[in-house]
Amino acid sequence: MAYTVVGKSVRRVDAIAKVTGKAKYTDDFSERNMLVGKILHSPYAHAIVKSIDVSKAKALPGVEAVLTYKDLPDIRYATALPGVIEAIATDDVDVAELKYGTAGHPFSLDESHRDKEDRRILTQKARFVGDNIAAVVATDALIAAKALKLIEVEYELLEPLTSPEAALKEGAPLIHDDSERNILSSNGYEIGNFEEAVKEADRVFEGEYETSIVQHCHMENQVSHAYVDSDRRIVIMSSTQIPHIVRRIVAQSLGISWGRVRVIKPYVGGGFGNKQDVCIEPLNAAMTLAVGGRPVRLELSREEAMIDTRTRHAFKFKIKTGINNDGKMVAIHISAISNTGAYASHGHSIAGSAGGKFRYLYPTKALKYDPITVYTNLPVAGAMRGYGTPQIFFAFESHIEDIAKKLNMDPVELRKKNLVEVGYVDPASKNKIMSCGIRECIEKGKELINWDVKKSLYKEQSGDKRRGLGMACFSYASGTYPVALELAGARIVMNQDGSVQLQLGATEIGQGSDTVFAQMVSEILGIPMYMVHVISTQDTDITPFDTGSYASRQTYVSGMAVEKAALEVKKKVLEVAHKLTDLPAHVLDLRDQYVVMKESGEQVIALEIVAMQSFYDRVNAQPITSDVSNNARINAIPFGVTFAEVEVDIKTGKIKIIEIYNVHDSGKIVNPLLAEGQVHGGVSMGIGYALSEQLLFDEATGKPLNNNLLDYKLPTIMDTPDIGAAFVEKEDPTGPFGVKSLGEPPIVSPAPAIRNAVLDATNVAFNRIPMNPQRVFEKFKETGLI
Amino acid sequence: MAYTVVGKSVRRVDAIAKVTGKAKYTDDFSERNMLVGKILHSPYAHAIVKSIDVSKAKALPGVEAVLTYKDLPDIRYATALPGVIEAIATDDVDVAELKYGTAGHPFSLDESHRDKEDRRILTQKARFVGDNIAAVVATDALIAAKALKLIEVEYELLEPLTSPEAALKEGAPLIHDDSERNILSSNGYEIGNFEEAVKEADRVFEGEYETSIVQHCHMENQVSHAYVDSDRRIVIMSSTQIPHIVRRIVAQSLGISWGRVRVIKPYVGGGFGNKQDVCIEPLNAAMTLAVGGRPVRLELSREEAMIDTRTRHAFKFKIKTGINNDGKMVAIHISAISNTGAYASHGHSIAGSAGGKFRYLYPTKALKYDPITVYTNLPVAGAMRGYGTPQIFFAFESHIEDIAKKLNMDPVELRKKNLVEVGYVDPASKNKIMSCGIRECIEKGKELINWDVKKSLYKEQSGDKRRGLGMACFSYASGTYPVALELAGARIVMNQDGSVQLQLGATEIGQGSDTVFAQMVSEILGIPMYMVHVISTQDTDITPFDTGSYASRQTYVSGMAVEKAALEVKKKVLEVAHKLTDLPAHVLDLRDQYVVMKESGEQVIALEIVAMQSFYDRVNAQPITSDVSNNARINAIPFGVTFAEVEVDIKTGKIKIIEIYNVHDSGKIVNPLLAEGQVHGGVSMGIGYALSEQLLFDEATGKPLNNNLLDYKLPTIMDTPDIGAAFVEKEDPTGPFGVKSLGEPPIVSPAPAIRNAVLDATNVAFNRIPMNPQRVFEKFKETGLI
């Protein structure tokens, strides 16, 4: 459909705020008098605290509180002024014994559907190097750092389990007493009957693939501050994707009523899923309680943030595929081991989610998925852009390429024989594919990279620098339905001049959601963008409830709430216009700040006059607002493809990306410029994932080796080629304005496309990423290329 | 009716915030980098600026901008970054030529009903000593003050008209070119036919009475700061009673769309009506525009605030009353001259409002009211607690006392013969008296002060110290209906534990409205007070629309919106409970955090379970909120009486108050302790009005003589007796929980009661207040008492 504002590359609503420095982030709200919190991390990957002596730390002038697992604040005491202020908690709660989960999922009324609760604010048992043993609150950061050094801890060392293999071996010590064989979960599925189907296949192929631990490296580290307000509530300002979930988890971690916590989210400097986890807020809350409610600031350094927040799960896959001679896959079996590190976080759901989103791309008669998520004594893996799909698609899109090679088939043609079609209903989720542009995406990608010409050009290569082409496809989802609740809220308040404020539960974290929401409102209400004022800050006290920014849900799921809110305002405007003009509301529409005749576009009455009437009509005054909630019980499946051209330096093992294109079917693109930005960011992240990024640990001790931005090889602008983005806009009937998700998808397919291009160039199949120069060099030696 | 929370003296919701210093007022939000604005005031009461040279001021290092009437900022230029930020204004507007009104009234769609627009942000014609001629914005206050001294102004002096008599004399210069004979308005009314009715009266009495100019003296002076945000809007934080009206008037003063202004109101340190006027915000907005949108802070000193904001109108009354021998008044004629000072502000409506509210007390066959509101070259009079009624009731309650004396009737009995009864319909407003406890108030007051015993005890006095008793009655209103729009809004958001946030358009300015609103919500939802979190800050971007805090409208008018919002939430809670239990919603009620059987009180399901269901039911999730607006088209009339006992020191002229009681029929009292506080404050203000307060001016030049808290005699705690407060709770069917107004009423009747007590003690009738020692001494000499 043709729209006025939707589909246009309008400027971000926060562009000026951000380039002028007026946009305020969490730390911009820090005040000079705030106390500073710092954390004592375990130096051992697996150990029990035998004794802990904080007396010297406590005695240091400027130290206001020292917390350990055994003396977390008594909430009732800390916040009570006897006779004046009642205590926050109504029951006696031993905070030190409370367990909670940190994953940023909506709460579930179904107990079996809740996240694993295996975390305490501070622990007696260190489960990874970096685990939180104690904490200090002091008047400044230097004193706090000094106090940490004065805490004397005696550890009993346990065997560090630094790999899933070690964790799974018979007799391995249990990382969590209540876990079986260090397995967090092993929930797979089988569609059809794999064993039967694979028997009928003409050929069977097997492959093994492996991904590494990487980290989000968002620009702004985790930071928060917390205090107890005069209403006796814990107020936390935090750089989070999920303020309403932070509220819940902080309350759970302290055993208090959820309404006793208020969370405020200002501008956020990136999250990529790492801020869809509640990492520092419970401890920050405990810190303020320990100092009588005074404000305490808690900020992680980069070195801390890289190991003490979350990482991306490393996966090992074994895939077995039965395929007929015509190229039709009939049976797929994927088994996976996911390394979730020391605590559950999102671990149990990420392996499942990967298998769920994979299902939409190549429907087969039989598909069996067997994931095991394993605890190890490494930093905690959690949500990260793609949520398991970069891993599974790296494996499968490498595997299908290997099959094509072995079958001597064009890998693109092989994929096309197996791609999903519109109308397909996923047998497990019951989601129906209502739109699908994957074939057009492939055609567009081939064209952009000049596939056919280059393919023949690079056919026979020798020499030190060899070029190759590769591609990979993916399917994704828009939000989490039907796995989790998809509730979103929006509120619109119209001013006297017809301009509006838009309040959202959904969080802007840099992705541009505020802008696309404003475009939707601008479109529906027929007002220019500058008349839509987005309240970018979320405050659990007043913002409509929304579970937050994750799962690529915002434009689709929260967009539905925005659309609903705007349509309600439009309805009210037209009702007032009807009262003023006697024209039936259904023949009217809104355009260019006017109520117009829907058909002819003829202007009937200025929006401003209607708005003024709504405020000041002596009899019928009723300011025009809407405050809606939408429970999305549907999902739209986006698709896409990466095409990459690489040049491999055989002697140095250096892989250079010559060209790379992502082509997405994400339904209607609300803002092409912002969409392109999403693709640039995702592909860049995918390039790092493919070629250079890996968080390294000493195998014997579990100590991190490169938890800093010098040694961790995030691609710089010098490593990043021009990235091409294109869109096939198959409007989905379920999405507002026909949108499907685009937030995470760009990260999913670059790594396998690059891997397949390297295979094309060198005939060497890398089944493990990153393909960094050392690993490439070793593999080339191994395969005899050098 | 019996309630659980309503009617109880619960602690103020902001008590802890205020006593611990956590409550943040406007200046607490000032930031170190803010520029400082200062104003150049006219030293002449009536003068024209012939020339103004700001070059020296502009040249002073640290001066960022100098504004005069002729170079107010070009809005288009100041806020535009060409090519990046569009200008705010869409039309060319000459701000220097824009006129606006400052009164905090709701806007009216009826042009004839709007406030007089006679003000410019800066003026070329000084109309009182203190008028705003120029302004400076500098990096700090010292530089700004120095710069003011460097501005060279040449004035052409005009005759200063320092009294209504001078202003009204033939040939007096016009203060405003478009005013006739310096008269702002002269809208009176006549009910019945006075001339005919008075002829039929048995006796006719006449009297003249006069009140003085006083000032509000709220603790927190006018203060605001303003900046242009990255959304290109002017954001103003201000200590105001009326944020939504500030938004409108600032926009009008600058000729921009109203939605381009955002106003935030934090805690306010008192207003008493003075902050129901938009005194400094337009200039503050102009200041930030003049410096490219950088934040500018504008705070008035006490000396400035006392003459450059608003004062209480001084009135002169002539009253003629026809009365029958049985004591029944049959015809009243009140003519009044109201001195409104240099600009209109509320002037035109205050004289009218006084006459309107007076009408309810003693209905007579004929009542004629002839007010004239006159411009003079004195500071601007505006809204102040009572809004004209302390003046008119001082006059009439003195007059009726004088009549009783002349008729040798008991003044209480005389009043009782004339008092209104339930069911009376005011012929002009059509307001119907639905509740009236004035007779019970009088009885209670008599009892409290031991009237009969003391009256006989003090009958025959001589000596230097003489005691006497006096009383005076009043009627008032609850809000402004039917004169103005009475729109109020409230929003409630329920949390997962059943606690709620309450967002109000109505402004807490110290009177305790947040607390009584929270009580109403607590009562209706059956949750304890600590589970109602009031958002005390108003922000025009997100707070429900409400015209603000004035006219004693909050508990009554805004209370209706709060009640409506809470009832909507209750309805939604019971609907969810119905879904969960199958019990019909109409048999259910809310009590003690439970859904209960309405009749038996038996607990059915915990509120928390209902709330959780509303958030997390996978199919029916719909968080429970309400966002309502209420247009109150009704008014309830409160009544009351003051009883005072005084001891007059004949030799010094010093009047000491021995006992004083105010007894109010304000309907249901939601919070007796807060109500008592209102009475204490109002009576204390009334004592100052009666005995000591007067803003003095040099008659020849109009220069203020005592615009500071040393020379202006505000009563101190040493001047204030124990004040007694009592209530006759005639629940009014129109008010939420039966309330009527109480905010302003306590100020209305103390002055005449004290005056009548002095008359009783000394036989000397003071027809002018304040009765300060000098005036008392002079009068005693004049009457031969000394």
Automatic annotation (TrEMBL), chains A, B:
InterPro entries: Ald_Oxase/Xan_DH_a/b, Ald_Oxase/Xan_DH_a/b_sf, Ald_Oxase/xanthine_DH-like, AldOxase/xan_DH_MoCoBD1, AldOxase/xan_DH_MoCoBD2, AldOxase/xan_DH_Mopterin-bd_sf, XdhA_XDHase. It comes from the Bacteria. Pfam families: Ald_Xan_dh_C (PF01315), MoCoBD_1 (PF02738), MoCoBD_2 (PF20256). Keywords: Molybdenum, Oxidoreductase. GO terms for cellular component: xanthine dehydrogenase complex. One of its GO terms (molecular function) is xanthine dehydrogenase activity. Residues 20-159 form the Aldehyde oxidase/xanthine dehydrogenase a/b hammerhead domain. PANTHER family: ALDEHYDE OXIDASE 1-RELATED, XANTHINE DEHYDROGENASE. NCBIfam families: PRK09970.1, XdhA_XDHase. This is Aerobic-type carbon monoxide dehydrogenase, large subunit CoxL/CutL-like protein. It comes from Desulfosporosinus orientis (strain ATCC 19365 / DSM 765 / NCIMB 8382 / VKM B-1628 / Singapore I) (Desulfotomaculum orientis).
